[in-house]
Design a protein that fits this description.
This protein is of the alpha/beta class. Helices cover about 45% and strands about 25% of the residues. The chain has a 5-stranded parallel β-sheet, sandwiched between helices. Helix 2 packs parallel to helix 4 and helix 4 runs parallel beside helix 5. The N terminus is likely disordered.
Length: about 130
């Protein structure tokens, strides 16, 4: 679509309970000029608290959400995010092979699903493709 550097970076919210994984993903995304991590959460409750603020509901372009969070299913957050920002791109990461959980994420409005074991490059590529489609 647009040449690198000609548009603002894709603003991303990360929702992942494993802090080391979340920090590594944030670091890799922030090193790429096409992305800027603007919000992070480790639980559904923490992510939902941010939904009341304009900076989350209107200030993000994409969300990367883990399905297995300590206080619930990340798929439940997908619908909440969509209601605040219908244009949001949502990429769900999952270590589960549960078809029911994956189906729940898609039904809630996830744009893409990736195995949590996917490499960081694959996650970045998926975010780029989904953002271009949106």
């Amino acid at each position: 679509m647009s040449e690198e550097g000609s548009a603002r970076p894709l603003r991303i919210m990360l929702v992942e309970d494993h802090i080391a994984y979340r920090q590594a993903l944030a670091l890799m995304l922030d090193r790429d000029p096409g992305f800027e991590v603007v919000a992070q959460a480790g639980t559904l409750a923490e992510a939902r608290r941010g939904l009341d603020g304009r900076e989350i509901s209107e200030g993000i372009d994409a969300a990367v959400i883990d399905l297995a969070l300590p206080d619930g299913n990340g798929a439940d957050l997908v619908g909440d995010l969509r209601s605040h920002n219908p244009d949001l791109t949502v990429l769900v990461l999952s270590a589960t092979l549960s078809q029911a959980n994956l189906a729940k994420a898609v039904e809630a409005g996830a744009d893409g699903l990736l195995d949590k074991l996917a490499g960081l490059g694959e996650i970045i590529g998926a975010l780029r493709r989904l953002a271009q489609m949106g």
